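To the wet lab folks,

You asked to see what we're planning to order before we commit. Fair enough. Below is the target structure as tokens, and below that is the sequence we designed to fit it. If anything looks off to you, flag it before the synthesis order goes out.
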């Protein structure tokens, strides 16, 4: 029970990495606020947690909307009386070069994958300061470390997420607030389901030294550690889980 009695909120908790993390958090004794834009997905994860004997609530919110972000934090504190951690994990992964995408598509990606972290931090930090500390986690990605072709908005947003992580870590360490990012490589989730299998395998053969597909619950395990007191001296870092992709430029 590495997270016993902690209150943790996870955005994008209705699917993929977020859902696996909500379930792992609850299994480790946390009370979990499962936030998703589509409520039914959050409710399904809450049901699984309840069936496992855990405690969780579902909250509908669009993390790109300031009012929704404030509301999800308020509801969590009303329900559980505190908030020990937030995991900004909701994200979209649009493709396109700068000449291909519209301004609206750029704004949508930057708002969900980057601005949402700013909004959540802005509104949760005062509560954490009043409580004596807290944890903020963000899902960035390896494309935030090195850009990928045809992913201009996504690569930019994820790079911003990594440096925003460092900024928050520096600015609020004195309040005992830790902030870290997780940078997954290619993880099997609904987000990547649409990728054609041959293209995926070719990519992984070329760029991922460890064979095999990364599973969402393997990312969740890292999110458990970073939210736990075992990581109390860990802040301002971007943790890569990518089967070794970032270890070298030419793998294959
Ligand atoms: N799957 C991968 O290979 C991979 C790799 C690197 C980074 N990531 C990142 O991991 C995070 C989770 O991705 P996933 O693969 O689990 O995807 P997913 O599509 O399975 O889950 C993302 C969830 O976020 C929710 N969401 C999207 N926009 C939202 C919004 N505005 N407000 C609230 N909820 C919203 C979706 O409804 C969905 O439930 C994302 O930030 C993604 O960019 C994923």
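Sequence we intend to order:
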């Amino acid at each position: 029970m590495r997270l016993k009695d902690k209150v943790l909120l996870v955005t994008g908790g209705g699917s993929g990495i977020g859902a696996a993390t909500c379930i792992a958090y609850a299994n480790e004794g946390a009370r979990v606020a499962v936030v998703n834009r589509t409520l039914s997905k959050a409710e399904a994860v809450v049901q699984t947690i309840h069936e496992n004997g855990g405690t969780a609530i579902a909250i509908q919110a669009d993390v790109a909307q300031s009012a929704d972000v404030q509301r999800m934090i308020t509801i969590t504190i009303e329900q559980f009386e505190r908030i020990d951690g937030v995991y900004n994990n909701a994200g979209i992964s649009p493709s396109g070069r700068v000449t291909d995408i519209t301004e609206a598509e750029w704004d949508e990606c930057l708002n969900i994958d980057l601005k949402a972290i700013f909004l959540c931090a802005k509104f949760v930090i005062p509560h954490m300061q009043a409580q004596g500390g807290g944890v903020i986690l963000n899902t960035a990605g390896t494309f935030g470390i090195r850009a990928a072709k045809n992913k201009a908005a996504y690569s930019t947003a994820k790079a911003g997420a990594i440096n925003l992580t460092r900024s928050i870590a520096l600015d609020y360490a004195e309040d005992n607030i830790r902030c870290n990012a997780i940078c997954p490589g290619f993880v099997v989730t609904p987000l990547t389901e649409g990728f054609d299998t041959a293209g995926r395998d070719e990519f992984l053969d070329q760029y991922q030294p460890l064979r095999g597909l990364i599973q969402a619950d393997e990312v969740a395990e890292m999110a458990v550690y970073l939210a736990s007191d075992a990581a109390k001296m860990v802040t301002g870092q971007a943790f890569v889980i990518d089967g070794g992709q970032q270890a070298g430029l030419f793998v294959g």
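Structural context that might help your review: The longest strand covers residues 177-184. The chain is about 45% helix and 15% strand.

Thanks,
Computational group
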